Amino acid sequence: IGPENLLLASKCKNAAVKLADFGLAIEVQGDQQAWFGFAGTPGYLSPEVLRKEAYGKPVDIWACGVILYILLVGYPPFWDEDQHKLYQQIKAGAYDFPSPEWDTVTPEAKNLINQMLTINPAKRITAQEALKHPWVCQRSTVASMMHRQETVECLKKFNARRKLKVSSSHTFVLFVSLSTSLSLFSPLSHMCHAPPPAPVLPPLQEPQTTVIHNPVDGTKVYAIQDALAFSLYCHSSPLIHPRKQEIIKITEQLIEAINNGDFEAYAKICDSGLTSFEPEALGNLVEGMDFHRFYFENQQQTNPHHHLEPHVHLIGEDAACIAYIRLTQYVDGQGRPRSSQSEETRVWQRRDSKWQNIHFHCSGAPAAPLQ
Asked: Of the CATH numbers 3.10.129.10, 1.10.510.10, 1.10.10.10, 1.20.58.760, which one belongs to the domain with range 3-146?
């Protein structure tokens, strides 16, 4: 759950709050816990998800604690430009209530946040308990009635900082992509060309999505610096069919498992009899997971993978395929930054309400470090 999932039913005062975007929500019974995959928006992920442990309803309480923190002061409890450092903060529960913003927040509000942001999910406050917390059920006497104008200003600054990061990423990635496309399609690629102005993007909750280029037909192509941010953008678009959103999201989870070198998570998303054509197999049809396990177990480092222009085709109610370009950044043996590109198609089948990858086809040079 993130702030973008919370909507007001209308602009009227005291409008009902609606919870939106159940694209890949997991329905759990009682206190059921299991590993459902690595999914969510980075700043709102709970420690147990980052540790790849079994999780359940407490992950939503953690996310609500992050949202409550933001709504009170206008900035998040966990923040770092480096996503790895951000995850370390979350796993350690490293947040505080700095002055001067928190000086006017009641102790009851801070207490509720502390209980919601408890690292151990077994000790984290439940939804039922949170509703009985004094800050909630006795808000007329406990909650501060002051207008938090400074919080509004902090929110504006925080959003402005994120948008600035997006703009900087646009400029860099646009130039790199333009250079690549010119070398592929233009006989004059050795000449210097000025990149066209970057198109305007809708505001994002996480600043990792960048426009690569605008093809002749005007279709926007996005390079996804972070799989979760891409899912967020796609889920927020009303133009994408809900089931197509599911396919995009589950594909992002699969790529995330590859990025993390997590074979266990990868194997759960794939059918045990997965078939594939890929450059590493030298033209042979590969069946099963052992071939892929070798690359997971022997990869030397994690390299960023980016998606370009995913297209989803629905095949009935329980099948679909997605085609996209994967751009992989890596450092070669001489320490020079390089990129490799592959064109991929994945076929998905839904079994027992779960999507599984049953086949994929990859063309291009062998990727670094693995498929």
From this structure: 1.10.510.10
